[in-house]
Design goal:
The structure is a homodimer. Chain A is an alpha/beta fold. The first copy, chain A, has eleven helices and eleven strands. Chain A has one domain: NAD(P)-binding Rossmann-like Domain (Rossmann fold, 3-Layer(aba) Sandwich), CATH 3.40.50.720. The first copy, chain A, has an eight-stranded mixed β-sheet, sandwiched between helices. In chain A, strands 6-7 form a two-stranded antiparallel sheet. Chain A is globular. Chains A and B meet through β7, β10, α10, α11 and β11 of A and β7, β10, α10, α11 and β11 of B.
Chain lengths: 227, 227
């Protein structure tokens, strides 16, 4: 499958590496290819610069947001939430229209220091903002409640005996994404919460997630719904 | 132990019944005792009027907010979030000062219809509002992430193999409340998230909680943190 990933950070890299390993044709989109490749210093989390990772993944193509979107049968929004709308606008409505967009971003606001708060919540969500800006795109929110490593390898925790959520207005798109979460990554327990407004709930899991990260001293955890 | 429960709803009743059964001296506080006892119709959820429940629990005393607070060694805020500050003001700062207050309330906003949003979130929380209004009270947020039945009987779900959180500024109060959650109700897994600002995270779990309630068609569930 032809997959376009919008965003070159840790999350985009983790998804791209796994999907490429599975044999998919992955293009990662960035604002400016030469700027991204010119970076030589680690990012804010101490991860090596993009070009180091790129050199280890030669099958994955780096291109502009617009080229990644045009290439894609399925688009994944893996930008930081604050930059999502600008990046997707650059990707281009015409290239995105009619496609499934898997939105894994969170509207984290680091401007007031750590831990982050949210830039939007409660009566709106990042996914709803994206859906309103791109009404012809089939936005499905998922994977935003776990760390990038867990996203692509849920079996790393308790044999994947924990939950992930999907939210979206298009039932067919949610069914397709649910199948892909299983076949791509091995997710076993997927809960369809409802329409795209239910993304408010999963984005609002982040404040307790960041506190649990602080308490547990690892991002390698997830929520299991126990009945 | 002498326990004062502020609030006569389902949550206050569940906590009062369990604590009375354990032999504690429970006083439930309400705005106006005669008004509460005069109600003859079910509440908005179809639960019988308070006096029906009271007649089945003769050991539990109904009194004013102020009397319940004055009686208490430990106070439990089981009001609806929108009414918490007014009720606690009536309970009286002098009677509350120096005591542990277990805050189980959520700032749910039903004014825009179902599902509820929150009246406060992201950069503040109900527990912080209470702590600011009553700086001499040892506010410990807990139990607000589960239904009243699960609060007092976590073993109803998977042998209590799931989690509850505590948030608060007073370490001794959190240690005490953690012990009480175990000895009173049988909670096995309790995570101390940090100071009272971490209540933002657990209150912000409510939007996904209400959507899960809708999807699972039962309030009998809880979150387990899987590592």
């Amino acid at each position: 499958m032809k997959i376009g990933i919008i965003g070159t950070g840790m999350v985009g890299q983790a998804l791209a590496a796994k999907l490429s390993e599975l044999g998919h044709e992955v293009v990662i989109g960035t604002r400016n290819v030469s700027t991204t490749l010119a970076r030589t210093s680690p990012d804010g989390y101490g991860n090596p610069p993009y070009r180091t990772w790129q050199s280890q993944h030669p099958k994955i193509k780096l291109a502009t947001f617009a080229e990644a979107a045009a290439h894609a049968e399925i688009v994944i929004n893996a930008t930081s939430g604050g930059g999502s709308l600008a990046a997707l606008t650059q990707a281009g409505e015409k290239s995105l229209n009619g496609k499934i967009m898997i939105d894994v971003a969170n509207p984290l606001d680091f401007s007031k220091g750590m831990p982050p708060s949210l830039t939007v919540c409660n009566t709106d969500s990042l996914s709803e903002q994206i859906q309103r800006a791109f009404p012809e795109v089939k936005v499905v929110k998922t994977l935003n409640t776990v760390n990038a490593t867990v996203m692509v390898d849920p079996a790393r925790l308790a044999g994947a005996d924990h939950h992930i959520f999907v939210s979206g207005n298009d039932a067919g798109a949610k069914t397709k994404v649910t199948e892909l979460l299983k076949s791509w990554f091995g997710w076993r327990h997927i809960i369809d919460l409802g329409d795209i407004t239910t993304a408010r709930g999963t984005e609002m899991l982040l404040p307790v997630w960041v506190r649990l990260f602080g308490t547990l001293k690892t991002p390698m955890f997830n929520f299991k719904i126990v009945q």
